[in-house]
Structure formats: structure tokens, C-alpha cells
């Protein structure tokens, strides 16, 4: 384990740029911490944090100059691997024939800066979705294979965090190229650094970093333990798949449906949801056409529309489908839960529906 200061961290980001990576990291925009292209550490949300609760989000100044002192962004990294809109092909008339051209995908190398452990777990889950044997998504995998990931372990937890329950954090254990833990005291501000790949080891060779001593390692461990002990939420995941499968007609579904707006917010901010639809667009003269893939949601009424009708017309049916897939049938489909405990769906639900509370209520009303 190494120690890296702010100046060398800035140099590390510049080395990544010199290696041809576009830097994607947290920055302040529209009164939120968002993930966007950055030039260096000066673009990071220095000295800012976010306060989150059910249906609430706001920025607040910290009492220090932490670079990664926020909980998480309303966005997730999936927007760069699985973009909200993607052109698949376009076609135009060429004389009496039709000229069809596949879309030319951007193949930039991306360096993700500041990936939380729960978000890294979400990327692993989407790997199962988009790199699924014969059903592999070429766009996703091209970007994914060229990613460089700098994870940042959590040293504080938000009111809606429950990664401990989902065993996805707060410390990243695999899948990163470089992992950082930010340590701030009255006299010191530094990061402990671990490498998790040959790419990570190669990048730090150009930096003159010293080995972390026992005191520095201990401080970093205590900082992560602070997040572990201050999780705002928890979820009992024991036999959770059976809980949902055995309670498809629970009265709890009617209660939550009376509050749910089916606005799709929870699926849009979720780092693992992957519903999409296909749109074919033509011009008025019929000389040009294109096919687009865009994000969709199982909360949208038209999503379950098939020949002959719609099989999920009620908010009750759509909410039940979402949470049952997320916490139960996802396990059958991909061998893992679809939830990583990031709490975004709680924060960005306009009426503050809490997925952890819904599981508790279902257990209270459960049929065995």
C-alpha cells in the first residue's frame, strides 16, 4: 500500500490523460454532484458534501477540503457504458436502393475517477447483463474493456446507504485498477493507494510514492469503519427471494401502489436497471430512417404493452414487478441481487418510498 498526496493525485490524473484516457469524475453542476468529463482535480467537488434522505437531496459545504466528501451522484456510471440514447443504424435512399449504415460508435478510453464500492458492484452486475455469452452487447463491452477505474472507498455514509446489508461496500475489494482512501485530520490530508491490476501498477510507476506506514494504514481503516458503523439503512436479505415469490398477493402491494407515482425516477437513477426500448424514426419525405436505443422503465405503462393488450396496467403490478425482479428473480436470472444498497431510489423518489422499509413491511405481512 502506498501514500499519495493531492499534488501527486493531480499528476496521476494527468498521466491517465497522457495515456489517452478521457477523465470522467465527480463535479458540481446544477446544484448536484454529477459524473462528467473533467480535466483534473480542480474540477472535483472540493469541500462539498451531499445530504440525502427519503425524497430529499441537497449540497452542503464541509468543514474541510475533502475531494471525495460526498455520498453519491444522482447519476451512475452506467450512463457511460449503457448510454441513455444510442443510435444503432441509419439508412437513406441512394438512387433506387437503400443504403444502410451501422452507427459508428465512439471508442474513447475512459478513466472513471471516484467510483464507490457499491457502484463498482453495480458495474459487475451490468457486466452479467451485457456480456452474457451469445447475448453480448458490443458497444458496452468495447467501452468496458477500455475502462480504467479509480475507486474511492467511502469514509462517510448517507442516510439512505445500506451497502453493508448487500455486501457491496463501503470498501472496494476487487475490480479496480487503483483504489484510494481519503484521510483528513487537523494536520494531514492524504490518500492511501492500492493497485488492483497491472494497468494500475504501470500508471503509478511514474510517481514517486512512499509506502504507507502502520499509522497511515490504521487511519485509513478507521475512516472506512466510520462509514460501516454509520449506515443510514439496513435490509434483511435472509431468504429474500422466497419472501417475494411467496407473497405476490400481499396487501402491502396495494399500500405502496397508493403512494407510487410510477414516475420511473427509481429506475433512471438505479445503477443496475437496464430496461430499454427501440425507436425507429423516419423523415417526412421517407428518404431517411434511423434506429435508436433508449432507456425505458418497467414503471412505464407502455413497457408491458404487447399484441393483444397490456399485462401490467396498474401501479401495483408495476411496482411489484420492479422490486420482485430487483430482489428476487434477478437472482435466478443473473446469480446475484439487482440491488447494491446505494440508496438512490430512496433519495430520488418524489414521495420518499423506501425499498428497505417495503421489505420490512412485506416481512411483517408475509405469507409462508
Summary of the model, kept short:
The protein has 368 residues and is an alpha+beta fold. The protein contains 13 helices and 18 strands. Helix 5 (163-166) links the parallel strand 11 (147-152) and strand 12.
Number of strands: 18
Strand composition percent: 25-35%
Helicity level, as a percent range? 25-40%
- Which ranges are low-confidence, i.e. pLDDT below 50, for 5 or more consecutive residues? none
Bulk shape: globular
Helix-strand makeup class: alpha+beta
State the separation between the terminal residues, measured CA to CA.
49 Å
Query: Roughly how many Å is the radius of gyration?
Result: 22 Å
**Assembly category:** single chain
Rounded average pLDDT: 94
Spatial sequence of strands, sheet with the most strands = 3-2-8-11-12-13-1-14
> How would a textbook summarize the main sheet?
8 strands, mixed
> How large is the count of helical segments?
13
Describe this structure in words.
The protein is α+β, with helices and mostly antiparallel strands and 368 residues long. The chain is 32% helix and 27% strand. The chain is built from 13 helices and 18 strands. It has helices at 6-18, 78-81, 117-130, 138-145, 163-166, 198-204, 214-229, 240-245, 252-257, 265-269, 315-334, 344-347, 355-364; strands at 2-4, 21-29, 32-37, 48-53, 56-61, 85-94, 97-102, 109-115, 131-132, 135-136, 147-152, 178-184, 189-195, 210-211, 276-282, 288-295, 305-306, 309-310. The strands form five sheets. Strands 3-2-8-11-12-13-1-14 form an eight-stranded mixed β-sheet, with helices on both faces. Strands 7-6-16-15 form a four-stranded antiparallel β-sheet, with no helix packed on it. It has a two-stranded antiparallel sheet with strand order 4-5. Strand 2 (21-29) and strand 3 (32-37) form a beta hairpin. The longest helix has 20 residues, at 315-334. The N and C termini lie far apart (49 Å). The model has no long low-confidence stretch (mean pLDDT 94).
